[in-house]
């Protein structure tokens, strides 16, 4: 018979809690979301001796049971709710050896909930280095617990920990201190009013505004004695509680822990002197950014090209192998290309999160936040917005996923909303072809080319739009939650390979199965709209075109290109292009560009491919499309369609417009509502339209 | 004086923490009366401030620091 023990892993951030989780569960883990919120839920199975299994939940990192963020709320709600299916039989509090004092605060709170608790002291390999020694027996006795001294880095103590988990029923559930002594009278009343409830639970419910079972704060307010405490009084009591707990912890550690400062070595001071330096700090950060850019732009292009060609040949193969028909077309051109459109992002996402997780694991990320906070704050952002904004120049999708560690919801939301303005790599093909068409080839002082300068300006415009709109949003958005900024500056450590790999896998999976589904669905819809059309003009395209060009003696290839082009013009999407033509004519575009804009809503880079199909050039060789585009004539004004005015207008349109359904999908996922992505879509598109309109009308 | 007036490398002892302006989280990280605090490093414009409070290393904004009353160790 196998039974399963529910185990909750709880601890401060940066204690190596996730390493303990990884060490216990290995690859037997899955990451999901808590229902209704975007907080990640990590759970896994750990095999224990004698056929026992433990179901382990890695709860979000928290410094105490007083919640100040959604993540921390999750911890409390689980620990208060005995009817939750995940309610732990056993809590494991993970602490690191250097910050034992601070970690014990959370531990004493968990003990007050009378859940059997094991104290894990991680990073024991650093004890000698830091001159720390511990009297484990004494600490176990004072804290009413069992202690596992482990090192996930050196893989020590994990077996002993598993043994302790197996024997969880022998653990004491007694508190370590009497926290209610901070206000005896108040707690006595509470005990009398609710004799069947655990006192500390009641206290948490009163101060936290969380629900458990049917008891919430309102239940207390109905009882006479509890109306007397105002919010400020309660906060003062919470402070007293914290001080009380620290008194106990200080007493305990005075005997249980000795630190010999003479033998302690500190790498932190030396590294911080350079990495947070006013000049060197920024230079080093710049160099690291350059490396990340290089990886995302350059190195990932190799696997991306491979993915691109593999999916193209797979689609080709399906078309040639399966019997002709609607289903084969759907599979080859809709589903397989749609899947390709999802998979193509994996290299960039994997690279970005590889770097981010290394920077985070090593402790460097906190230094970046420290260096950048002041500058970013002027625009309503946080030091923690730096990474997303920079990643956005590669791709907004991983960038938006990287906003999760911003605690203040307002600062996080602003970061999510403005990130799509930064010039992502999908805009590049569009920029390159239009710049080549409309910007002359000359050079400033025979040195800087006008074309390169234009490209740089477009990057600056993107970044400026992001920062500027952040500034405006900061003025407009009103949120009640008070933002504060406390960043722990953890010790530097060498990243654990296993943790880095698991993070990369997990983030990639989250993208493929989260946003990927929506991208695939919309690609299929767009494919359908481009492949079907109403009426004879579409359905009899072949005979119409053959008749039309009968006298011209075209080769078979040329003819089939003409047919494709005719079909696209009369497909649903072609009709959409014609329909929006009156709206985009003031911007200097015709219906063909209209189709390209509509279809590139899937992803910006589709713009070039669509024009290739419309101009029936058959190949999407850049030179060929460019020549064809250069020859296009404006139907009303005459002269080239792509001139300086319409070119600049188009460039600006792409700089500002929200032309990326994948981004919308990820914003929906991260903000958990369609409201924000829809605002983004409407406002960014309207802004893009107005700017493009003004640019064309002025330059025309 | 307040924590915001501390110079780099200087140490002080926390005397009082104005509870209305200070998040509980900061107290829980060790920012409590009686504890020693050292200013390890400052970012440009002296904001944020990188502190060592009783062995806990953390960074807070100058605005927050100005609500923490301290006394320097050698006066």
What features would you describe in this structure?
- The complex is a heterodimer of chains A (700) and B (75).
- Chain A is of the alpha/beta class.
- Chain A folds into 4 domains: 4-170, P-loop containing nucleotide triphosphate hydrolases (Rossmann fold, 3-Layer(aba) Sandwich); 179-259; 280-475 and 491-496, no CATH class; 519-699, no CATH class.
- Helices cover 59% and strands 8% of the residues of chain A.
- A 7-stranded mixed β-sheet of chain A has the order 2-3-4-1-5-6-8, with helices on both faces. A two-stranded antiparallel sheet of chain A has the order 7-9.
- In chain A, strand 5 (90-96), helix 3 and strand 6 form a beta-alpha-beta unit.
- In chain A, helix 25 packs across helix 26 (556-570).
- Chain A is elongated, with a radius of gyration of 31 Å.
- The N and C termini of chain A lie far apart (81 Å).
- The relative contact order of chain A is 0.07.
- The model of chain A has no long low-confidence stretch (mean pLDDT 84).
- In chain B, strands 4-3-2-1-5 form a 5-stranded antiparallel β-sheet.
- Chain B is mainly beta.
- The mean pLDDT of chain B is 86.
- Chain B is 12% helix and 39% strand.
- Chain B contains 2 helices and 5 strands.
- Chain B has one domain (3-72): Ferrous iron transport protein A (FeoA) (SH3 type barrels).
- Chain B is globular.
- In chain B, strand 2 (36-42) and strand 3 (49-53) form a beta hairpin.
- Chain B has helices spanning 24-28, 62-65, and strands spanning 11-17, 36-42, 49-53, 56-60, 68-72.
- The chains are: A alpha/beta (700), B mainly beta (75).
């Amino acid at each position: 018979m196998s039974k399963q023990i529910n185990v909750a892993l709880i601890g401060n951030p940066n204690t190596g809690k996730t390493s303990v989780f990884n060490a216990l569960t290995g690859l037997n883990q899955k990451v999901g979301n808590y229902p209704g919120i975007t907080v990640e839920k990590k759970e896994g199975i750990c095999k224990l001796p004698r056929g026992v299994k433990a179901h382990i939940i890695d709860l979000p990192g928290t410094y105490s049971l007083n919640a100040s963020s959604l993540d921390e709320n999750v911890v409390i709600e689980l620990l208060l709710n005995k009817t939750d299916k995940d309610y732990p039989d056993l809590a494991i509090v993970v602490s690191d050896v250097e910050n034992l004092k601070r970690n014990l605060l959370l531990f004493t709170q968990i003990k007050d909930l009378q859940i059997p608790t094991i104290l894990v002291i991680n990073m024991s390999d650093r004890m000698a280095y830091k001159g720390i020694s511990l009297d484990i027996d004494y600490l176990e006795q004072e804290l009413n617990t069992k202690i596992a001294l482990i090192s996930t880095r050196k893989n020590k103590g994990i077996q002993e920990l598993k043994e302790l988990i197996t024997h969880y029923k022998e653990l004491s559930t007694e508190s370590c201190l009497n926290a209610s002594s901070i206000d005896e009278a108040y707690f006595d009343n509470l005990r009398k009013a609710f004799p069947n409830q655990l006192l500390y639970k009641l206290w948490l419910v009163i101060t936290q505004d969380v629900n458990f079972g049917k008891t919430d704060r309102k239940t207390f307010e109905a009882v006479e004695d509890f109306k007397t405490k105002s919010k400020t009084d309660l906060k003062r009591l919470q402070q007293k509680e914290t001080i009380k707990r620290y008194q106990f912890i200080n007493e305990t550690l005075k005997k249980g822990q000795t630190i010999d400062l003479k033998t302690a070595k500190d790498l932190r001071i030396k590294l911080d002197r350079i990495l947070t330096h006013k000049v060197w700090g920024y230079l080093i950060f710049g160099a690291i950014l350059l490396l990340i850019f290089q990886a995302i732009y350059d190195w990932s292009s190799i696997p991306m090209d491979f993915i691109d060609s593999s999916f193209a040949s797979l689609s080709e193969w399906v078309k040639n192998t399966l019997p002709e028909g609607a289903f084969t077309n759907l599979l080859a051109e809709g589903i397989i290309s749609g899947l390709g459109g999802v998979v193509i992002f994996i290299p960039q996402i994997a690279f970005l999160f590889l770097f981010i997780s290394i920077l985070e694991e090593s402790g460097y990320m906190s230094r970046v936040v420290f260096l950048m906070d002041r500058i970013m704050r002027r625009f309503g952002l946080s030091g923690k917005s730096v990474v997303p904004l920079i990643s956005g120049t590669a791709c907004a999708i991983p960038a938006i996923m990287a906003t999760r560690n911003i605690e203040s919801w307002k600062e996080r939301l602003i970061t999510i909303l403005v990130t799509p303005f930064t010039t992502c790599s999908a805009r590049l093909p569009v920029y390159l072809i239009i710049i080549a068409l409309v910007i002359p080839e000359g050079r400033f002082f025979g040195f800087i080319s006008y074309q390169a300068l234009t490209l740089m300006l477009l990057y600056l415009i993107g970044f400026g739009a992001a920062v500027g709109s952040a500034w405006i949003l900061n003025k407009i958005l009103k949120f009640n939650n008070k933002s504060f900024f406390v960043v722990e500056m953890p010790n530097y450590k060498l990243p654990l390979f296993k943790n880095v790999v698991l993070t990369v896998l997990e983030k990639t999976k989250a993208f493929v199965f989260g946003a990927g589904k929506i991208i695939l669905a919309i690609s299929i819809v767009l494919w359908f709209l481009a492949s079907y059309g109403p009426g004879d003009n579409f359905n009899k395209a072949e005979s119409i075109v053959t008749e039309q060009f009968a006298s011209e003696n075209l080769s078979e290839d040329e003819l089939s290109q003409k047919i494709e082009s005719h079909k696209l013009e009369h497909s649903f999407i072609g009709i959409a292009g014609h329909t929006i033509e009156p709206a985009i004519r003031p911007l200097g575009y015709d219906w063909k560009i209209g189709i390209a804009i509509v279809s590139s809503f899937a992803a910006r880079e589709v713009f070039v491919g669509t024009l290739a199909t419309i101009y029936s050039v058959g190949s999407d060789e850049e030179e060929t499309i460019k020549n064809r585009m250069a020859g296009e004539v404006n139907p009303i004004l005459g002269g080239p369609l792509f001139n300086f005015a319409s070119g600049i207008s188009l460039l600006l349109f792409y700089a500002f417009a929200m032309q990326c359904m994948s981004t919308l999908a990820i914003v929906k996922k991260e903000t958990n509502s369609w409201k924000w992505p829809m605002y983004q879509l409407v406002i960014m598109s309207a802004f893009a339209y107005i700017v493009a309109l003004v640019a064309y009308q002025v330059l025309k | 004086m307040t924590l915001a007036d501390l110079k780099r490398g200087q140490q002080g002892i926390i005397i009082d923490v104005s509870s209305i302006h200070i998040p509980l989280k900061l107290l829980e990280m060790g920012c409590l009366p009686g504890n020693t605090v050292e200013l390890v490093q400052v970012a440009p414009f002296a904001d944020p401030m990188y502190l060592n409070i009783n062995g806990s290393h953390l960074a807070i904004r100058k605005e927050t620091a100005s609500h923490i009353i301290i006394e320097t160790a050698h006066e």
